[in-house]
Specification:
The protein is of the alpha/beta class and about 675 residues long. A hairpin with a 5-residue loop joins strand 3 (about 60-70) and strand 4 (about 75-80). It binds adenosine-5'-diphosphate and magnesium ion (MG).
Length: about 675
C-alpha cells in the first residue's frame, strides 16, 4: 500500500493531508427515491433488494443491475454496463450510497441510475459509520486498488495527528485575507464542519480551500521570484549596444521591423546590456517574425566578441533557421555552422574544431548541440526555438556551457500572460503581438470527408494561379491499427497519379533521411514542386511565402496547437490563403477544436481554448515545462487567486529583504515544498 501511495507522491502523513478530495457528498440528508427526477444528479441511499446480470441487447456485453429500496420502501434501479464483476461485490442486504445521474428507460418505463459511483456502507452500529455517513463526506480519487473509503479512513487518522501543523503563511497576509489557520483549513477540507456549505466546498471556494489554493500559489511564486532574483545576481555578460552595432543591424535587415519587433528587441537589448544573465522568453504567434528579433540579438552578442548558439527542436527546423539566418547574415559577413545528428563524424569534428577556435560566429543545431563535446570559444548568447519541446533541464544544461551566457527562448505557442508568469516565473517575457505588414488573412473552412472533392478543386485553382499547397496527413504510411486514418505515403501516390497528375507533387515525412528531407524542402522552396504531401514535420518554422493552401486531412486527429502551427505555414506572403480542415466523424472535443480554428486566427485565443479543453497538465506537459503538480490550485480556474498570491509573494520578498523572517520562509520552502512539489526542478 505504501508503494501505491508513494507512486502518487504520498510518503508522509503530511502528504496525505495535502491530498484533497475531488468532490463532496451530503450524506446527512439523502433524497428519497421518489424525489429523484430524470436528468438530476445526486447522492441517494438504499438497501440492495435484488440483483441480476443480463444482456441488454443480443451479443452485447453483460450488464449488472441492482434493485435498490429506500426507507420509504420505494424502488430505484441502478445499472452498470459491462460490469458482470460487480455481482461479487453488490449483494442483497447491503446498504449503498450511490452517486449518479437519473435517466429514464422508455422500454421499462422507469427511472434508473446509469453507472453510478457507489460505496458499500458499514452496518448500523459499526463505529466507522460516522466516517462515511450522516455528514458531508469527502470523496477521494482511488489510488491503485486503494478504495475511497480506505483513503477516507487514512485521512481521518491523519487529521487526528495534525493538530499542530506548522503555519508558515506570513501572519499579515493571513489576516488581510481572513484566512483560517493551516490546521483549520486542512480539517475543513477533509472533515468539513456542518456550517460550511457543500456548494462552496464543491466549487473549491470555502475558506479552507481558498487558503490552500492561495498558499500553493504563494509558495510557488515565492520560489520562482527568488530564483529570478538570484539568477539576476549571477555574474553574466554586459553587452554594449553602440551606434556601430545599430548600424550593423540596420545593414542586415531586409525589411523594416514592426513596432512589436522593435519593442521586443529593445527589451532584449536592455537585458543584454545588464551585467546579469538574461533569461527571456520571446513569445509571438506563428509568423510574427521572431527569427528577425533573434538575429538582431545575435548581432549584439557577436559584435561584442561572443558566439551565438541557436537550438531548434528538429533537423528540418535547424536547417530552416540556418537558411534564413544566412540570408540575414551574409549581408554582414558572419559565418554560420550547422550541426546535425546526421553529419558524419568527420564533418562534425571539423565543425567542432572551428567552433572551438572561434572561427564561426553562430552555430545552429538540434539537441546534437547539447552533446558535451561541442565547445565554444566564447559563448555569449543561447537562442532556443520552440521552448515547449525542450525540457527545462536541457535548458539549464546548455547554460552551463559558457561563462553564463544570456538565454533567449522563442516560443510560437502563445501562453496566456498569467500562465507564462507562473510557468516561467524565472523568465522575463517579451511579446510580439503584431504581424508583419501586408499579411493576408487566412480563410479557414471545415470540410467533411465527403466534400473533399471541392478542396482539390480549390487546390487546383491556386496552383493554376502560380501558388503552392501543403496537404498534411496524420500517418506516414497506412496502418492496420488505424484503418480510418489516411497516410502521407498512400495519399501521395494517389494525388500524384489521380488527383493532380499534371502537377509536381512531393512527399515529406519524418522517416526520410535528413538529406532527402532537406532536398524535398529545398525543391518546394524553389517552387520546383506545386504540392507538398506531408506529415506534421512541416508543423513548425517552415517558411515558404508562395504557399497559400494548407489542407489537413483527418484534422480531427490533431491537437489545437498543432493545427494552428500547421495553418501558420500559409498566409506568409502577399496572397490570400486558405486552410481546409477535412474531417471524418467528430466527437465533442474535436468539434470544439475545429470550431475554434474556423472562428479565429489568433493564437492566444486558441491557446486559451486549448487550455480549457485539455487542462494545464496536458497542455504544458508537466514534466517538460517544469510546472509542479499543484494539489489544490488549478492554474486556469484559480487565476485570480494566482494573481493575488503572486503580488503578495512579491511584496513579501521586498518587505523582508535580509530579515530572519525571510530566511525562515526560504527554509520552509526548501524543506516542505521542494520535495512535495518538485520545485527544485523549476527554472
Ligand atoms: P516566426 O515568428 O513564426 O518564427 P518568422 O520569423 O519565420 O516567424 O517570420 C515569418 C515571415 O515573416 C518570414 O518570411 C519573415 O521573413 C517575415 N518577416 C518577419 N518580420 C518581417 C517584417 N518586419 N516585415 C516583413 N516581413 C517580415
Ligand atoms: Mg520561427
Amino acid at each position: 500500500m505504501a508503494g501505491k501511495l508513494q507512486a502518487k507522491g504520498l510518503e508522509t502523513v503530511e502528504d496525505l493531508l495535502f491530498y484533497p478530495p475531488f468532490r463532496y457528498e451530503d450524506r446527512s440528508r439523502f433524497l428519497p427515491f421518489r424525489q429523484f427526477r430524470d436528468g438530476q444528479s445526486g447522492a441517494v441511499l438504499g438497501i440492495v433488494a435484488s440483483t441480476r446480470t443480463k444482456a441488454w441487447r443480443k451479443g452485447a456485453q453483460l450488464l449488472f443491475e441492482a434493485e435498490m429500496q429506500d426507507e420509504q420502501g420505494n424502488r430505484l434501479l441502478a445499472r452498470w454496463y459491462n460490469a458482470k464483476y460487480l455481482a461479487n461485490e453488490i449483494v442483497p442486504g447491503l446498504r449503498l450510497a450511490l452517486f449518479g445521474k437519473a435517466e429514464y428507460d422508455f422500454q421499462a418505463n422507469r427511472t434508473f441510475l446509469a453507472h453510478p459511483e457507489f460505496e458499500v456502507l458499514p452496518e448500523e452500529g459499526d463505529p466507522e459509520l460516522a466516517l462515511h455517513m450522516g455528514r458531508i463526506v469527502p470523496i477521494y480519487e482511488t489510488i491503485g486498488k486503494i478504495s475511497r473509503k480506505q483513503i477516507r479512513r487514512f485521512q481521518a487518522k491523519a487529521i487526528d495527528a495534525a493538530n499542530e501543523l506548522e503555519d508558515a503563511m506570513p501572519r499579515e497576509i493571513r489576516e488581510r485575507y481572513r484566512m483560517p489557520s493551516l490546521s483549520q483549513a486542512i480539517r475543513e477540507v477533509h472533515a468539513p464542519p456542518n456550517e460550511i456549505s457543500i456548494e462552496a466546498l464543491n466549487a473549491r471556494r470555502s475558506p479552507g480551500f481558498h487558503r490552500l489554493i492561495f498558499e500553493e500559489f504563494f509558495w510557488l511564486e515565492f520560489g520562482l521570484l527568488r530564483k529570478q532574483r538570484e539568477a539576476k545576481g549571477n555574474p553574466g555578460i554586459a553587452f554594449a549596444l553602440t551606434d556601430n552595432i545599430r548600424e550593423k543591424i540596420k545593414a542586415m535587415l531586409p525589411f523594416k521591423p514592426t513596432e512589436a519587433q522593435k519593442r521586443a528587441l529593445k527589451e532584449i537589448a536592455t537585458d543584454m546590456a545588464k551585467p546579469s544573465p538574461m533569461n527571456r522568453l520571446l513569445q509571438g504567434d506563428v509568423g510574427s517574425g521572431k527569427t528577425l528579433v533573434a538575429a538582431e540579438a545575435a548581432v549584439i552578442a557577436i559584435e561584442n566578441g561572443y558566439q551565438v548558439a541557436l537550438l531548434a527542436p528538429t533537423e528540418i527546423l535547424a536547417a530552416q533557421h540556418y537558411l534564413s539566418l544566412n540570408r540575414f547574415f551574409k549581408r554582414i559577413g558572419y559565418t554560420i555552422a550547422l550541426v546535425t545528428g546526421s553529419q558524419t563524424a568527420r564533418e562534425k569534428s571539423q565543425i567542432k574544431k572551428v567552433v572551438a577556435e572561434g572561427l564561426v560566429q553562430i552555430v545552429v543545431g538540434t539537441h546534437a548541440l547539447l552533446e558535451k563535446d561541442v565547445e565554444f570559444k566564447k559563448l555569449g548568447l543561447v537562442i532556443i526555438d520552440e521552448q515547449h519541446r525542450f525540457g527545462v533541464l536541457q535548458r539549464l544544461f546548455l547554460r552551463q556551457k559558457g561563462a553564463t551566457p544570456d538565454v533567449l527562448v522563442m516560443t510560437a505557442t502563445p501562453i496566456p500572460r498569467t500562465l507564462a508568469l507562473t510557468l516561467y516565473g524565472d523568465l522575463d517575457v517579451s511579446v510580439i503581438d503584431e504581424m508583419p505588414p501586408g499579411r493576408q488573412p487566412i480563410e479557414t473552412r471545415h470540410i467533411t470527408a465527403a466534400q473533399s472533392k471541392n478542396v482539390w478543386t480549390a487546390v487546383r485553382h491556386q496552383v493554376g494561379l502560380g501558388r503552392q499547397a501543403y496537404i498534411v496527413y496524420p500517418l506516414v504510411d497506412d496502418s492496420e491499427n488505424s484503418p480510418d486514418l489516411k497516410s502521407a505515403q498512400k495519399m501521395f501516390e494517389l494525388h500524384q497519379e489521380k488527383t493532380f497528375p499534371d502537377f509536381r507533387v512531393g512527399l515529406l515525412h519524418g522517416q526520410l533521411t535528413p538529406s532527402a528531407k532537406e532536398e524535398v524542402m529545398d525543391r518546394f522552396k524553389r517552387h520546383e514542386l506545386d504540392v507538398l504531401v506531408s506529415t506534421t514535420v512541416v508543423e513548425v518554422g517552415v517558411d515558404v511565402p508562395n504557399a497559400t493552401v494548407m489542407v489537413i486531412e483527418n484534422a480531427e486527429k490533431f491537437g489545437l496547437a498543432q493545427l494552428h502551427q500547421l495553418r501558420g505555414r500559409v498566409g506568409r506572403g502577399a496572397h490570400g490563403s486558405f486552410c481546409f480542415l477535412v474531417t471524418g466523424n467528430l466527437n465533442e472535443i474535436s468539434e470544439q477544436r475545429i470550431r475554434a480554428m474556423v472562428q479565429t486566427n489568433d493564437g492566444f485565443k486558441l491557446s486559451e481554448v486549448d487550455l480549457e479543453i485539455r487542462g494545464p497538465g496536458e497542455f504544458f506537459g508537466t514534466r517538460q515545462s517544469g510546472i509542479p503538480q499543484l494539489r489544490f490550485a488549478h492554474v486556469l480556474k484559480d487565476r485570480e487567486i494566482l494573481e493575488t498570491a503572486r503580488e503578495e509573494a512579491h511584496l513579501f520578498l521586498e518587505r523582508e529583504e535580509g530579515t530572519p523572517r525571510l530566511r525562515q520562509a526560504v527554509e520552509y520552502l526548501e524543506q516542505r515544498w521542494q520535495r512535495r512539489y518538485g520545485l527544485a526542478q523549476v527554472g
